[in-house]
Amino acid sequence: MAERLNLTSSPSASSMASVRAAAARLFPATAKAARLSFPSVSSPSSLKCLRSSPLLSPLFLHQKRSSAYLSIGNFSTVASPKCFVSDPDQLKSAREDIKEILKATFCHPILVRLGWHDAGTYNKNIEEWPQRGGANGSLRFEIELKHAANAGLVNALKLIQPIKEKYSDVTYADLFQLASATAVEEAGGPKIPMKYGRVDVSGPEQCPEEGRLPSAGPPSPAAHLRDVFYRMGLNDKEIVALSGAHTLGRSRPDRSGWGKPETKYTKDGPGAPGGQSWTVQWLKFDNSYFKDIKQRKDEDLLVLPTDAVLFEDPSFKEYAEKYAEDQDAFFKDYAEAHAKLSNLGAKFDPPEGFSIDSSPTTVQPEKFVAAKYSSGKD
Ligand code: HEM
C-alpha cells in the first residue's frame, strides 16, 4: 500500500531525504532515474516536482484523487515551484472565495481581463511550451505585468494573490482562468464548460515577449484583429463573440489611454469610480454591448475602433447583428469561445485536464416512477 507522506511545515533537507527514501522504497527503478532530474533537495519545489514527475506520478496521482497526498505547508509565492498540478477540491474552494471577492469588490471585469490577457499571448505557430505562450500563469511576473497592454492588471493579481496563498495546490494558470470564468457566470453570463489542470511556468524568463495582445486603435482594425486572433487559432465568430466580454467593465485613460476619466455611469462606482464603460449596466453580462455599439446613441458609452469594426466588416457584422438580436445565440457562442480561449497554449496535467463540476459518474440514476408504467396512459 502506498505510504502517505504528510509534512506540515517547510521541508528540511532531512525531510526531503525521507521523501526520497520512501519514494525509492516504493518505486526503486523510477526513483533512481527521477533523482537525476530533481532540482535540489533543499528546495521546496522539488517536493512538488516529485509529485508531478512523469516517473513517479502513479504514486501521487492515486493519492491526490483521494485527497490524501503530499502536504508541504504554505510556501507558495509568485516565484512558485516548477512542476505544479492543481487539486480539484482546492479549486472548488477557491471558486467560493472568488465569489466572495466578487461580491465585496465588484471586480468581475478586471478578473475577466486577467484571464484573457494570460491566455491571449498564445501563438499557434510555436509548438514548444511555454514559448508558445497562452494560459500558463506567466502574467504573474512583473516583466509581463509591465507590458503596456496589461496596464492596471496588477490590481487583479493583488486580489487573487491571497487566494493563491490560501490554496497552494492551485496553479496561477488555473486560478486566473477560474477567476475569469467565475466572474462571467456571477455577472449573469453563461455557464462556461471549463477544464483545469494547467501547469505554471516557473520563472520570468518564460514570459512571452511584449506585443502579442491586440491594440485598440490600429490603422486597419479588422486586419489587426484577424492577425492577432488567427495567430491564436481563433476565427471571425470567436473574435466577435469574445469581444462581447466588453459588456463588462470600463476603460480608463490612466491605464490604457482609452476612454473618458468618468461618465454618468461610472462616477459613483461600484468599485473604484471612474472610467468609461461600453454599456450602461457594466457589471451585468448580457448582449447590450452589441446593441449599444450598433445604436451609438450615448456619448457616455465607449466604442473603441476595434469594437466599431464589428459592425463594419462584412464577416464580423454577420455575427454582431445576430448577437444584438439574440442573447441566447451570443451566450452559446461566447461560452464555447471563452472555454477555447482559456485552454490556449496550456499544458494540462493530466493531459486531458479535469472538470470541477459534477461529472457523469456522479449523476444519480433516474428514479423509477411506477405509475408511468402501470397506468398505461401518460
Ligand atoms: C478584440 C480586441 C480587444 C481589444 C483591442 C481590447 C481592448 C481593451 C481596452 C483598451 C480595455 C481598457 C483597459 C483599461 O483601460 O483598464 C479593455 C478592457 C477590458 N477588456 Fe478588452 N480588448 C479586446 C478583447 C477582449 C476580450 C477577448 C476580452 C475577454 C474575453 C476582453 C475583456 C475586457 C474586459 C472585461 C475589460 C474591462 C476591464 C476593467 O473594467 O477593468 N477584451 N479591453
Automatic annotation (TrEMBL):
<dbReference type="InterPro" id="IPR002016">
    <property type="entry name" value="Haem_peroxidase"/>
</dbReference>
<feature type="compositionally biased region" description="Basic and acidic residues">
    <location>
        <begin position="251"/>
        <end position="267"/>
    </location>
</feature>
<comment type="similarity">
    <text>Belongs to the peroxidase family. Ascorbate peroxidase subfamily.</text>
</comment>
<dbReference type="Pfam" id="PF00141">
    <property type="entry name" value="peroxidase"/>
</dbReference>
<dbReference type="GO" id="GO:0140825">
    <property type="term" value="F:lactoperoxidase activity"/>
</dbReference>
<protein>
    <recommendedName>
        <fullName>Plant heme peroxidase family profile domain-containing protein</fullName>
    </recommendedName>
</protein>
<feature type="domain" description="Plant heme peroxidase family profile">
    <location>
        <begin position="111"/>
        <end position="353"/>
    </location>
</feature>
<keyword id="KW-0349">Heme</keyword>
<feature type="region of interest" description="Disordered">
    <location>
        <begin position="245"/>
        <end position="273"/>
    </location>
</feature>
<dbReference type="InterPro" id="IPR002207">
    <property type="entry name" value="Peroxidase_I"/>
</dbReference>
<keyword id="KW-0408">Iron</keyword>
<keyword id="KW-0376">Hydrogen peroxide</keyword>
<dbReference type="GO" id="GO:0016688">
    <property type="term" value="F:L-ascorbate peroxidase activity"/>
</dbReference>
<keyword id="KW-0479">Metal-binding</keyword>
<dbReference type="GO" id="GO:0042744">
    <property type="term" value="P:hydrogen peroxide catabolic process"/>
</dbReference>
<dbReference type="InterPro" id="IPR044831">
    <property type="entry name" value="Ccp1-like"/>
</dbReference>
<keyword id="KW-0809">Transit peptide</keyword>
<keyword id="KW-0106">Calcium</keyword>
<keyword id="KW-0560">Oxidoreductase</keyword>
<keyword id="KW-0934">Plastid</keyword>
<keyword id="KW-0630">Potassium</keyword>
<comment type="function">
    <text>Plays a key role in hydrogen peroxide removal.</text>
</comment>
<keyword id="KW-0150">Chloroplast</keyword>
<dbReference type="InterPro" id="IPR010255">
    <property type="entry name" value="Haem_peroxidase_sf"/>
</dbReference>
<dbReference type="GO" id="GO:0009507">
    <property type="term" value="C:chloroplast"/>
</dbReference>
<keyword id="KW-0575">Peroxidase</keyword>
<dbReference type="GO" id="GO:0046872">
    <property type="term" value="F:metal ion binding"/>
</dbReference>
<dbReference type="InterPro" id="IPR019793">
    <property type="entry name" value="Peroxidases_heam-ligand_BS"/>
</dbReference>
